[in-house]
Amino acid sequence: MEKRAELYRGKAKTVFTTDDPNLLILQFRNDTSAFDGERIEQLARKGMVNNKFNHFIMTKLQEAGIPTQLEALLSDTESLVKKLEMIPVECVVRNRAAGSLVRRLGVQEGMTLNPPTFELFLKNDALHDPMVNESHAIAFGWATEAQLAQMKTLTFKVNQVLTQLFDAAGLILVDYKLEFGVFNGEIMLGDEFSPDGCRLWDKETMQKMDKDRFRQGLGGVVEAYEEVANRLGVQL
Predict the structure, then answer these.
(1) Cross-strand pairs, 199
(2) Which residues contact 130 (CB under 8 A, 6 or more apart)?
(3) CA 148 to chain centre
(4) Where on the phi/psi map is residue 189: left (φ > 0), alpha (ψ -120 to 50), or beta?
(5) Cα–Cα distance, 48 to 185 (Å, whole number)
(6) Which residues of the chain fall below pLDDT 70?
(7) Which three-class secondary structure state does DSSP give residue 195?
(8) Looking at the record's lineage, which domain of life comes first (predicted)?
(9) Which end of the chain has the lower number of beta carbons within 10 A, N or C?
(10) Hey, what domains does the chain have and what are their CATH numbers?
(11) Are 92 and 121 in contact (CB under 8 A)?
């Protein structure tokens, strides 16, 4: 597989084309950002940890029948993925109250949400990823009704798989965001699943083991990611 031109550079990952028009190389960098890129730092080992963490999680989801764009782990910081036509809407499931939900509604952090909530956000950094609903997505042509229904079904299936996986590792999956795309007419999970895009708390201590450590200046960000990976059995 030949890596070719840089296609897209995000806040923490770079996407490259390959000699196969249907495949891309996803490179995980050490860049760590918060507040829509207003704060950016380099954290040693982070790209490697997130790449291998993502490969582990995506493999578990594929084994559970959830289609993903992942093809193969290429190196410590690179993965081979299918080239998806990305849908610009993020799906968020919340099992506990945290983050923007607490700020918006004034509820207590850590409150158990039963059933878990499902939210949609427009992927747009300039607008700070505003919350939208299904009517917005359909009216503006971001996704079809059928695509949204499939995305919601897959998002909750991910929740079933991963809440059990993390619970067995002594962790609470508080919330997470997913991005989807289309490949040969099929909705597939894209982007990544790592502690950058979810909240994970230790079941006993309620210690935060995710990107909130960076957002809130708690320190030990990569160390927390590595601890989560080790508990899951990820080979770093």
Answers:
(1) 175
(2) 121, 122, 124
(3) 18
(4) beta
(5) 32
(6) 36-37
(7) coil
(8) Bacteria
(9) N
(10) 3-82 (3.30.200.20), 85-218 (3.30.470.20)
(11) yes
